[in-house]
Each structure stands twice: as structure tokens, then as C-alpha cells.
Amino acid sequence: MSSEPFWQRKSLDELSDAEWESLCDGCGRCCMQKLQDADEGDVYFTDVACRLLDTDSCQCTDYSNRLKHVEDCVSLRPLDEQKISWLPPSCAYRRLALGEGLASWHPLISGDPLTVVTAGISMSGRCKPENEVPVHELPAHIIEWHDL
Questions:
Q1: Where does the chain show beta strands of DSSP type E?
Q2: Would you put residue 26 in left (φ > 0), alpha (ψ -120 to 50) or beta?
Q3: Using CA atoms, how far apart are residues 13 and 77, in angstroms rounded to an integer?
Q4: Residue 62: other Cβ atoms inside 10 A
Q5: What residues does 32 pair with on adjacent strands?
Q6: For the whole prediction, is pTM greater than 0.70?
Q7: Is-contact 94 12, C-beta < 8 A?
Q8: pLDDT value, residue 82
Q9: From first to last of its 148 residues, what are the pLDDT tens digits of the chain?
Q10: CA-CA distance, 84 to 1, in Å (whole number)?
């Protein structure tokens, strides 16, 4: 048996459901509303959360049924180039797909689920629920990730 962790010895396509889910650090960044430039294709993140995201815990309030309730929610498996572009640079799925390792603050590296919060990666307490922000105001809520 290899002493390498599963994310180093397996491709994303080879992961079990449990391994796949454990890669999620629970930051909530992928659940932020995004805007895409129609001409260039660039993706811009906002600090406005999906209506199913608990903005304190950064957990989906109906994860198993999210695709039924949120029209533009994306199932990441299988992960492809388009889906990768919609993930924040800090995302473990994106990092591994691009040949990068997990960040030092990732709970699978640190052994502590709170390092995502202490490292400033989590959106907990840093986002607004979508029902509080009209769609036409989304451009005013664009944010950039400066913490990597």
C-alpha cells in the first residue's frame, strides 16, 4: 500500500465518492454568484451567495437536491475545462486538475477543518445572500481573490 495520500496517487476520475467529497474544503467560494463576460469569456466572482448557501457555515442547506432547486448549480463530476474555469483558484478540484497540490491550509493537509477560515479562504461572514442583492447590482459585488 502506498504511503502517498489518495489525491497524489489517483486522478480525479479515479476517486471514490467519499474521496471526492473530502477534497471540498467547505469555503463556499464556488457557491458565489458569478458573471461571465460574453465577449471574452472571463469569469468574475461576486460576494453574493447562492440562495441555498448558509452564509455562516458555508454549507449548502440542501446539498443532495441542489441541482433540482438551483438552475445554474453545477455538478463538478466529471470535471471538464469549462467547469474548472468556474471554480476559484483556491479550489482543490481546480488545483489538482491543473497539476497543483493542495494548499497548506487545506484540511486534508493541515488536519484542521478550521484552517480554511483562519487562512481567510472561507466566505463565512464575508458574503451576502442572493435575496438581498438585486441582479442588476451584481457587478458592484465583483471581488478578486488576493489571498493565494
A1: 32-36, 43-49, 53-54, 59-60, 128-129, 142-143
A2: left
A3: 8
A4: 12
A5: 49
A6: yes
A7: no
A8: 87
A9: 678 999 999 999 999 999 999 999 999 999 999 999 999 988 899 999 999 999 999 999 999 999 999 988 988 998 998 899 889 999 999 999 999 999 999 999 999 999 999 999 999 999 999 999 999 999 999 998 775 4
A10: 31
Residue 148: strand, helix, or coil = coil
List residues bridging with 45 in a β-sheet: 34, 143
Report residue 28 as a C-alpha cell: 463556499
The letter for the amino acid at 102 is L
For residue 139, the Cα-to-chain-centroid distance in whole angstroms is: 20
> d(Cα 143, Cα 10) in Å, to the nearest integer?
33
Sorted by where each begins, the domain ranges of the chain are 16-143
Contacts of 97 (CB under 8 A, 6+ apart): 12, 79, 84
DSSP string, 23-65: H-----GGGEEEEE-TTT--EEEEEEE-TTEETTTTEETTGGG
Omega before 129 within 30 of 0, i.e. cis: no
Give the containing element (helix H, strand E) for 97: helix 92-97
